[in-house]
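Proteins fold reproducibly. Take a tokenised chain:

. . .
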Amino acid sequence: MSYRTHLKHCRLSRSIAITLLSLGALCLAPALTAQDVPLISGAAGFLTNTTGGNTSYFPVITPVLVAPVGQHLLFESRASIEGTVEPQQGAGYDGRFHINVAYAQANYFLNSHVTLVGGYSIIPFGTYNERLTPIWISALQDAPLIYGIGNPGTGTGTGGQIRGNIVSNENYSISYTAYISAGSTDFQINSSRDVGGRVSVYLPKQRLEVGTSYGRLLETDKMNAIGTHVWWEPARIPLKVRSEYAHGPHAQGYWVETDYRLSQFHGANSFVGRMEPIFRLQQTFRNSPDANDELPAQNTQRVDFGLDYHLPHEVRINTSYARQFSSASSGGNVNIWETALIYRFLFPTWKGKK
């Protein structure tokens, strides 16, 4: 599933977006005189995708609101304002405009080990959904092929989470997340009825994280999904290695991604040091047919090669080439070229007290 498909599946009407922002403003009212000032961050970008010779264009703005209310409560939300310009068979191009809310939630920090989350929240299955979907973070434009396993529907749940840290010291840290989501068929807020969680172990000296995830869909067809992830970021070199494996009732697969910032060559601000090569290998294996898991209908392998360039003032250029291998019934082999120009922004909503 691509980032653009993820956004379309999270589609909400303008009225819902305005309602959520209004609720956020009400939550902020008691904190107008507080020291903590709400922040607006996010990114604006212009993305292109060329698949099989057809090019589509995607201008997008993704704002994030983070608003503390006192010492224990935090409201946060992420939206997307996206245009889609796609070629139509024999009819030129067709343009559309979407406003989506990816999540809108309240976090209550009970203590150092427990945080309670309520609202419309991202499902914490695996790592990609929570950590890498924002365009200013992801090194490659498209999400992994196995994204749909453990992230049914929009990848967002309407309900609650409990998360925190079980234990933390200089040698290791163990964190957990558990969630429950109510089913909603409303076209404005669409979520599945499911439960699940994730447990991760982090070794700070090795900068290594290993975790496992579980999700159970509680709809008419009750289904289980399991996953594992491994992240490694060595301290002495600017290398990142990320990987996931997920197994669902009808398919399974994995992805491995590595990127290396060339900052060791004459510094991070040199011409070469601003470059960041990326490589991703992924495969999916179809166990049985399923039209709803959003994975390829046949066994598929894909290789991505990317090169990102970090310009001054939080501007980044992403470029990538991918070759996807599949059977003729699933579209056959295809080349995918993608580019993106992304600007990251961050500013306070008003001037805080000194």
In short: The longest helix spans residues 14-28. DSSP finds three helices and 18 strands in the chain. Residues 113 and 234 are 27 Å apart (CA to CA).
